[in-house]
Request: fold
Amino acid sequence: MAVTLNQVCFRTLHLDKPWTLATYESAGGYAMWKKILHEKTPPSEIVDTLKASGLRGRGGAGFPTGLKWSFINRDVPGDKYAVCNSDEGEPGTCKDRDILTYNPHQLIEGMLIAQYVMNATGYNYIRGEFDLPLERTEAAVAEARAAGYIGKNVLGSGMDFELYNTVGAGAYICGEETALLESLEGKKGQPRFKPPFPANYGLYGRPTTVNNTETFASVPVILEKGAKWFAELGKPNNGGTKIFSVTGHVKQPGNFEVPLGTSFAELLELAGGLKDGRTLKAVIPGGSSAPVVTGETMMGLDMDYDSIAGAGSMLGSGAVIIMDDTTCMVKALARVAYFYYEESCGQCTPCREGTGWLYRVIKRILDGNAGQHELDMLDDVASKIEGRTICALGDSAAWPVRSFIKHFREEFEFMIQHKKSILD
Amino acid sequence: MNDVKEKSALSQPAREEIDKWVAKYPEDKAQSAVIPALHIAQKYNQGSLTDSIIESVADYLGIPKIAAFEVATFYSMYELKPVGRHKMGLCKSISCMLMGADELGDHLQKKLGIKFGETTPDGKVTLKEVECLGACRHAPVVHMHNRYYESLTPEKADELIEGLE
Reply:
């Protein structure tokens, strides 16, 4: 059966100038926002719908969205915040950029609905390099404000909803939600100890919910078409659709919004398949933090949280990085390790020092200066970062190393012994 | 003397742009505007920040100077040394690497006669290695002047460089 594409976040992408208010409204946009304000829908009803839909956080952690929203007590006096994490930077991931650029109004509508549920002010934190996405999203906010969807006494409801875009300045760590909140407060993006969690102590110390761009943008469609419709697009515990960024060694890299549970083989085909005469060597199925999976195993998996977790990896952000038989796994790992070394915020010693050691040892192997014992040392260093840091960046640095060595140990051993790649 | 000149670098237009960002945050939270304010100050100072400009931003927002320095030194988009008229940031992360970013990087360094992190002697181009730009489906990617140049080949990169003034 052919896969149906673009049913949720990308549903307007085929239209002319989908980023404009006129186009979005012509496709039924803001109808849910108007309905909610008109009918004064009980917030608990919206939360229940999201819970029933099975929507899980699309940024990487996969936490159930309805449950997350229910953590905020909307009746607590004082400010509360709904924050969108548009700090997309997990290597391989380029989906939120397309939502911001091509369908910003749907994100805004999703955020406004969250703000209604939590009685909150909205901030959309966009990474500093995303110039066009920021420009489009700023224009969309201005249009929505002029149309009366944002601001004081929205659509005569007597309620005020403010929503602002804000920017980063180049730091992967700000994709971690508490680092993002620090950054939004105008500080270095260093993650906070948890607890307290943002639901209790978030932006400016106030109750806050942080969700990914794709998560917020899914909400209007779920409310319009119903929890059942969304849940049944996917599989049990893996409801709905997911945008996969398929990159690397495929003929047509791209973003594909498909039902969760679509087979990897089908997704690969959507991306045009491998280049002619090549075979699939390995796949990182959920952004570079996710453990690598061999091509053979991957061909038997489905693209959903449980199937990928069953193979010892994770669906993560949905960045599917394809490596064919021309890939030197030592070189690939060196590149991934360098990223975490460069992006460690420096707060926790195991991560700050450990990411440097991981990179330097892998570099030594690449340069032909390492001994066989260093392979075990590498695994040992990685194991001592894992689980010993405030945030998940430490784990994200460790997991690729451990999984690359586990699945492709012979390539590392070969290079150490022969001082050249197994491919040369 | 330099100080006087640089303080004026936070010009009226720069201040007006910063004010728009300050208005987005609660009244007593002007520090939240430090990230966009430093971007703006950098834009009005030929693409880099100096100590006295960072101090001016802190003063303008009414926050401790150290708070602005912490931000200016933490985030990778701020330049603390002068840069060329065109700053090219080549993404070297995994998806770009798989699509030839290393080879493209070698080509760019050779073509420009500089290494990563350096500026051409005529002050035209600064070449930087950057981490994932979030445009992986169009790898390899260069970030320059508020836009991405995507699916680059050495030939396309040459055209890009030759078109720079």
Remarks:
- Chain B has a mean pLDDT of 94.
- Chain B touches chain A through 45 residues (CB under 8 Å).
- The longest helix of chain B spans residues 101-112.
- The radius of gyration of chain B is 18 Å.
